[in-house]
Design brief:
Rossmann fold, 290 residues, disordered C terminus, alpha/beta, binds S-adenosylmethionine
Amino acid sequence: MLSYRHAFHAGNHADVLKHLIEVQLLRHLMQKDKPFWYIDTHAGAGCYALDRGFAAQNAEYENGISRLWDRDDLPDALADYVSLVKDINPDKQMKLYPGSPLFALHLLREQDRLRLFELHPADSEILQQNFAAEGARVQVQSADGFGALKALLPPPSRRALVLIDPPYEDKQDYRRVISALGEGLKRFANGIYAVWYPQLQRIEAKQLHEQLKRLPVKSWLHVALSVQAPDKSGFGMHGSGMFVFNPPWTLYGILQEVMPYLVRQLAQDAQASFILEKHESNSHSGNPGQ
Ligand code: SAM
């Protein structure tokens, strides 16, 4: 049963980290004219009201995007991300927060394509409505994104960003991330894959990185932002992270500048911290075409 609704969490510290990186990856792909696909296996509703409904209940955005909204000292990459959020709020009041597909729609060019998957019937309907006017460039499917990914790879242009952003409420998501990536990399070794994960005190969450680091890929980057110490009772999310497979080489340097700033701005206690690591292998032989 699907109970997760992203609207409760829209604009929180985890969205800030995820969408900051998504924007940087899209900017990188846009440096060449050649078309690319943006594939979002867990797209959510596409856009969220912050001043009413689910997002207003716990107001998680107050510890996320709100803390950056009025800053005039943002590092460039964060300023880019915040200005995209401001673009969808025409009166500059923070009322709406874009989901991952809306950041992509905002940036993608005529030649690029969006392929969006969302399984929750209510969010999938909102997503369809949000993107109804976009024509064939955008395809929204009410379907299992893990299962659908394989058939889309490789995309015709051989260029793509795949965002994999499951809720992890079902423990199977941990296993399915690894198998979807394994299949994806076999078919399309050179794609850029970005995987979000929550920092939780649960064994599957801790094992996930080790499994991700063992995937047969030439290079990866891992970044994580902990906004507070893990809860003593063992519950709750104290931060989140992203693995990017085949990252642009510039991303590490950008995050070296951004992450200390994000820790300072988004810290909820003195234990806030970040991890930034990368791996590059010249000897890996499992990926044809690299
Ligand atoms: N990527 C979105 C963003 O950044 O704005 C947020 C996505 S939210 C973390 C995860 C979404 O995945 C939820 O809306 C949930 O309903 C949906 N979902 C769960 N399992 C799914 C599956 N197997 N395939 C597609 N969507 C799924």
